[in-house]
Each structure stands twice: as structure tokens, then as C-alpha cells.
Amino acid sequence: WAPVHLLMVPKLHISSMAQLQPEHANLMGRMMMLAPQLAAQEGCRPYPQGGFRVMVNTGDDGGQEVHHLHVHVIGGPRPWLKG
Fold first, then answer.
1. Under CATH, which number does the domain 4-81 receive?
2. Each residue of 64-77: pLDDT tens digit?
3. How many whole angstroms separate alpha carbon 14 and alpha carbon 44?
4. Active-site residue among 5, 24, 70, 72?
């Protein structure tokens, strides 16, 4: 569970990260550049005190359930860590 959990899904169908080709480099670069903007927009505090995770599940053994490439942006405060 996380207070912020977004998915970035490209319009172009790519089954998984394992199917990426050199011509997809710009697409992936744009998605990675967008991740911190979306995280901040949704309330994640900036690095280094805050932060967020970027996750891509790839293949069945990697936990991929939807076979269309998508990138999770996960973050936000974690109050359960405070003693």
C-alpha cells in the first residue's frame, strides 16, 4: 500500500520491458522524465527527504499481470514507520 500509486501506460503496445527495442528509447526516456513530475504533482516530497519508487514488473515471474508495458510510480508519506 502507498498513498501515491500511479501508472504510466504508453499508447504504443509493447508487451513488456523485455520486448523493448532501441527505437523505444525516447519513449522510455520521456516516461522516466515524467515520473518525478507526476510524483511531485501527487504530493510526494522531494528527494532526499521524500522520494518515490519507479517499478516495472516484467513477465510472469516478475509479477506482470497486464501484458502491456506500464510503469508504476509509488510514493508518499509512510506514517507506519514512525515509532
1. 3.30.428.10
2. 999 999 999 999 87
3. 28
4. 70
